[in-house]
Predict the 3D structure of the following.
Amino acid sequence: MEILTNYQLKTFNTFGVEARAAYFCLIKNLNDIKELFSSDIWNRPRLIIGGGSNILFTKGFEDLVIKNDLKGIEVQDEDTNHVLLRTGAGENWHEFVMYCIGKDYGGIENLSLIPGCAGAAPMQNIGAYGVELKNTFYSLEAFNLATGKIKTFHKSDCKFGYRDSVFKNIYKNRYLILNVTLKLTKKYHRYYTDYSAIKETLKNNNVKKLTIKAISDAVIRIRTSKLPDPAELGNAGSFFKNPMVDKVDFEGLRAEFSDIPGYNSEANKVKIPAAWMIEHCGWKGTRLGQIGVHNKQALVIVNYGGGKGKDIARLAFDIQDSVADTFGIELEPEVNII
């Protein structure tokens, strides 16, 4: 295992902003982690990254950055209808979804084309088009950064919520996720097609018989039509979470903004699309030099090339202030601002 110094992180964050790490290392196996854990540099502050799709660097990191590159996909157990499939935390998430579709393993096809690595999926309980990771999650193994011991987390241990888990709050920066195991279907797949965009796309694709591949193809078509490819235009996907408010508060908002959309959620809550509020405030398509808000999706802040992380963060804060002033709602970033 090699520890590099003054390392450029531009290729390790999907915003493509320049930032340097004082120390950097790539973790490819458990022995690398154990070796690093036993070294003197382990006592420095640490930042663990995967695909870099949920990070915004506003400055360099003056300590140790660890890139999780743990790979491998293997069947843990299976029966007639289900398979327990384990993936290394460093596997590219979309490539893992494509692997599952190629094997006709169902359950995560709606999560196609979500950027990032598999290890980040349970951290923020990724979700799209009516499906969340928790629907198929079985367990994960994680390395305790303080003790060096490996702990298994089952679904109930993770306390999954909307884009949330224990790894984003009480266990934040306390574990390095090693692998993730999902329980997927081999037949009798359940199809999630309630979203109108999926129904319309399936119709346009002339799909006569539902399959997990047909749904994945539809999701990919929808996402590529709305979201820029980070390889071509720097971004981190949706920058903000969709806020949830009490039903009584939503009715108050609807009295003032008659066309505000809302979707019933759990516990008498209503989910409001953050993109609608941002667009209503006039931000969609705004460009400020080398950064801006995407012209097709107001939830996406983009780097046109050469933009600085601190300027992207300032734009995000201005959007937050604008939405708060207009609707009385504080948008919460999905992206970790460093």
Remarks:
- The mean pLDDT is 94.
- The radius of gyration is 20 Å.
